[in-house]
Amino acid sequence: MKTLWKMVNEIAQPKEVMGSGKILALMNQKGGVGKTTMAFNMAHALSRQGKKVLCLDMDPQFNFSSMFGINPNDKSHIHHLLINSIKELKPLHSAVLLDEVIQRTESGIDVLPAGQELSGFELTVAGINSPRQLILKKFIEKNNLRAMYDFIVIDGPPTLGLLVVNILCAVDGVLYPFVPDSFSQQGLKNIQQVLEDIREMEICPVPVNLGYIPNLFDSRRKQVREDFEKMEVELGSGKIFTPFTNRVQFTKAQANRKSVFDFEAKDFKEIQDQFTVMAQSVEQELLS
Ligand SMILES: Nc1ncnc2c1ncn2[C@@H]1O[C@H](COP(=O)(O)OP(=O)(O)OP(=O)(O)O)[C@@H](O)[C@H]1O
Ligand SMILES: [Mg+2]
User: Fold this and answer.
1) Tens place of pLDDT per residue across the chain (288 aa)
2) Residue among 197, 84, 60 at smallest CA distance from 133
3) Are 149 and 54 in contact (CB under 8 A)?
4) How far apart are CA 254 and CA 34, in angstroms?
5) Hey, what's the torsion of the CAs at 227, 237, 13, 157, to 10 degrees?
6) CA 41 → CA 140, 190, 204, distances in Å?
7) Phi first, then psi: what are they for 175, rounded to 5°?
8) Is 285 helix (H, G, I), strand (E, B) or coil?
9) Ligand 1 lined by 253 (C-beta under 6 Å)
10) Is the shortest distance between the CB of 158 and ligand 1 below 6 Å?
11) Distance 147 CA to ligand 2 centre (A)
12) Which pTM does this prediction carry?
């Protein structure tokens, strides 16, 4: 019997796109599995390969923005732009333009930050008549963001609500970081169920599965090895990247608000190579 994973891997079809830019998101309903860490370093890996990259923070915790040293407190961010893009919510519109919200960083990567107000997104749009699932997709289309960037990297929140549905409807592909344990596995299954619902509703094409990223993998532990082996079977035909172990380099990079590529020390080489391989794989999957 086919697993749900296998079915989702099979039904995912490349999307028709306006403009050449590709959009990917890092998703898992489980918190703390490395979504933001992977999104941040993937964005830098793509940028190092000469791509123009926009990092779009869709998590009200705004960790992705913080990693770039951006503190969106009291400033406008993606929530305000999304609300401004909904005609029916005119009384809630604020006088802010996309150009004023996009932050240009030293790394050459642009950032569209998030802020706490994003946690009220679902409630704010609850009463509108236009399709609530497609707000982000339409915002990206209206602002022609695909034409402005080679890649848009979205960091997703550890939830399953309307923000997640909006992300899944807006992207071409998804990378799934996970820690090999049952909670993380459940988080992945729940996202797959949302994808299945999207497919059944036929509101947009289902994004391509760009692969699973095992993280915080401790191969010395028997339980971890066993859980990982079980998950390998469950994940079916999806690509599984080389696992990341618990590395102090991530902590060091994060503390300095830098990517792993900003360090020349030899002990960063292995994880730099892992991100480079993943970036090449994503490019190949989305550009072919
Ligand atoms: N391989 C790793 N080695 C060491 N530390 C790591 C590793 N991966 C992630 N971390 C650390 O674990 C913490 C959680 O990671 P991260 O914030 O990327 O997870 P997340 O899935 O985005 O969490 P949330 O669901 O809350 O958004 C961070 O402090 C990060 O630096
Ligand atoms: Mg995060």
Assistant:
1) 445 555 555 555 444 445 689 999 999 999 999 999 999 999 999 999 999 999 999 999 999 999 999 987 768 999 999 999 999 999 999 999 999 999 999 999 999 999 999 999 999 999 999 999 999 999 999 999 999 999 999 999 999 999 999 999 999 999 999 998 888 889 999 999 999 999 999 999 999 999 999 999 887 888 888 888 888 888 887 899 999 999 999 999 999 999 999 999 999 999 999 999 999 999 999 998
2) 197
3) yes
4) 12
5) 10
6) 23, 25, 28
7) -105, 140
8) helix
9) no
10) yes
11) 27
12) 0.93
Tokens of 190: 């729940």
Extract the tokens encoding 202. 């036929």
Instruction: Give first-to-last CA distance, the chain, whole Å.
Output: 31
**Ligand with smallest separation from the Cα of 65:** 2
Give me the DSSP letters along 34-67: SHHHHHHHHHHHHHHTT--EEEEE--TT-HHHHH
Residue with tokens 């732009």: 81
Residue where the block lists tokens 């090999």: 180
For the chain, domain boundaries: 4-12+19-287
Within the chain, what is the greatest distance between any pair of CA atoms?
Answer: 57
Give the amino acid at 91: P
Rounded-to-integer distance, Cα 246 and Cα 218, Å? 7
Assess contact for 48 and 261: CB atoms under 8 A.
yes
244 C-beta closer than 6 A to ligand 1 = yes
Give the Å distance between the CA of 5 and the centre of ligand 1.
Answer: 24
Q: How far is the CA of 38 from the centre of ligand 1 (A)?
A: 8
- CATH superfamily, domain 4-12+19-287, is P-loop containing nucleotide triphosphate hydrolases (3.40.50.300)
